[in-house]
Amino acid sequence: MAAGMKLAAFCLLAVASLPLLAVADCECEASADEDSDKGRALTLKIAFAAGVILATAFVHILPDAFEKLGSPCLADGPWHKFPFTGLIAMLAAIATLVVDTIATGYFQRAHNAKPAAAIGDVETSDHGPHGGGHAHGVASMMVSTPNADGGGTQLIRHRVIAQVLELGIIVHSVIIGMSVGASESPSTIRPLLAALTFHQFFEGIGLGGCIVQAKFRLKSVLTMALFFSLTTPVGVLIGIGISSAYDENSPRALIIEGVLNAAAAGILNYMALVDLLAEGFMNPRVQNNGRLQVIVNVSLLVGTALMSMLAI
């Protein structure tokens, strides 16, 4: 079963890479109207993806964490005396905030240092009486252009968001893969496989939208797609390896799964609410267009509804 899932993941990765290679060979330039339409379409896709990720965290992962850490099998420990699930989810959200801000600040400082170094090189290389001032003026205009600087800052944010989001999804993927691999009951494996398929499909849509928005190079896109594709099969292999000694109702298994689920829920909640929804809905393009606001909200509700229906 693990080999089949690896083969399926490889096929999906190969198919997903074909459009990227086709785009790389295209030399046509899009018009301004097409760029605007693409921007609106991407906003709708991100709103839908955020709804999927939000529902995954609130409807699927967090209830599982409460169930595991609230199990009667943990009656002897402190797990029934304090809401550890909420605490772990909160701490995971705070940790994601810390990673998000530190990574964004680091890459932003590195981005700002590059134009400054370029200006210094231009000023020291031109010793002419008029050339130096002219070069300095051109360089200053290039650095102070709002579109160039703002675009770079926004791109950094999108890339950090995509990478942190993948971290949260990977944690969840390993957990659900381990559940499938460790289970030895066909009646349990069948619904788990169905849930895994739909979870990975919708989470892949959400992560894929963020990766496209981040405009990574092809190598980075393929690397992130590979990690996303292989984490669940790796989790299945781990589950198969420990299946002989694994008891899903043992205190150790319940605590490990509950803690990891709560952490994944906290990460995805933060990413959906702060990095995707807040940033997208507060975008001036959305705020200045009433029709787009309505469509974005509908897209968000559709994403949450589809993912919530899987809980049935």
Give an overview in words:
The protein has about 300 residues and is mainly alpha-helical. The protein has one domain. About 85% of the residues lie in helices and about 0% in strands. The protein has ten helices and no strands. The longest helix is centred in the middle third of the chain and has 42 residues. The chain is globular, with a radius of gyration of 23 Å. The N terminus is likely disordered.
Q: Nutshell version of this structure?
A:
This protein is an all-alpha fold. Helices cover 85% and strands 0% of the residues.
Q: Features of this protein?
A:
312 residues; mainly alpha; globular
SSE map:
Layout: H1 2-25, H2 32-69, H3 84-125, H4 131-144, H5 146-182, H6 186-214, H7 218-242, H8 251-281, H9 284-287, H10 290-309
End-to-end CA span: 25 Å
What value does the average pLDDT take? 76
Order of helical and strand elements? HHHHHHHHHH
Envelope shape: globular
| Biggest sheet architecture | none
Helical residue percent band: over 70%
Outline the low-pLDDT stretches.
1-34, 122-149
**Beta strand count:** 0
Derived from helix and strand composition plus strand pairing, the structural class reads mainly alpha
Strand content: under 5%
Any idea what the radius of gyration is? Answer: 23 Å
Number of domains: 1
Summed up, the helix count is 10
